[in-house]
């Protein structure tokens, strides 16, 4: 009985210290902005160093298994484990490259305000507002719990879901051509980013 109470207390304390979705998003944004505003990493000559650092942050904070599944939609169920792993690895490379470029070009100036979270068990929506120049842009992060940690599963910029865009594009190519054709196009894109631009 005493052991049971001690175990319960340990888990309660761990839960109390657990990072909230809003704290997770705020931490990601602070890390990225620190790189973007670092005086020692400014200018075109240091763009690749900034790219590598930001790409690493994305890799550590996004849930690519869930993202790949949602992006491929119903076709995911038709793939075996090996093909799913193959697709996920290619998708991760392409997403990290694309999102890193977006961050490099989009988050040069500005700050995030009004960080609010909505919780639903192991899912969360963190709503933020990016204030830059003369515009306020809603940027919403969808997160899910993975092995006890909150990870980002989608980002919607001004109401437009990044994963939703991928899903529409992938579905169109599969219907008009084939899954193999989609994979071939993705591999070509993956090969193009192997050498830093």
Describe the structure.
The protein has 197 residues and is α+β, with helices and mostly antiparallel strands. It has a single domain (20-192), classed as Tgt2/MlaC (Nuclear Transport Factor 2, Chain: A, Roll). The protein is 56% helix and 22% strand. It has seven helices and five strands. A five-stranded antiparallel beta sheet has the order 1-2-3-4-5. Strand 3 (135-146) and strand 4 form a beta hairpin. The longest helix has 26 residues, at 81-106. Residues 1-17 have low confidence and may be disordered.
In summary, what is this structure?
The protein is α+β, with helices and mostly antiparallel strands and 197 residues long.
The fold-level CATH name is Nuclear Transport Factor 2, Chain: A
Mean pLDDT: 86
Task: Calculate the terminal CA-CA distance, rounded to whole Å.
Answer: 61 Å
- Alpha-beta content class: alpha+beta
Radius of gyration: 19 Å
Shape: globular
Main beta sheet: 5 strands, antiparallel
Q: Look at the structure and give the CATH class.
A: Alpha Beta
Count of separate DSSP helical elements = 7
Number of domains: 1
Map the helices and strands.
Blueprint: H1 2-17, H2 21-36, H3 47-61, H4 64-72, H5 81-106, E1 111-120, E2 123-132, E3 135-146, E4 149-157, E5 160-161, H6 162-176, H7 179-192
Antiparallel strand pairs: 1-2, 2-3, 3-4, 4-5
Q: What structural keywords apply?
A:
single chain; 197 residues; alpha+beta; Nuclear Transport Factor 2, Chain: A; five-stranded antiparallel beta sheet; 56% helix; disordered N terminus
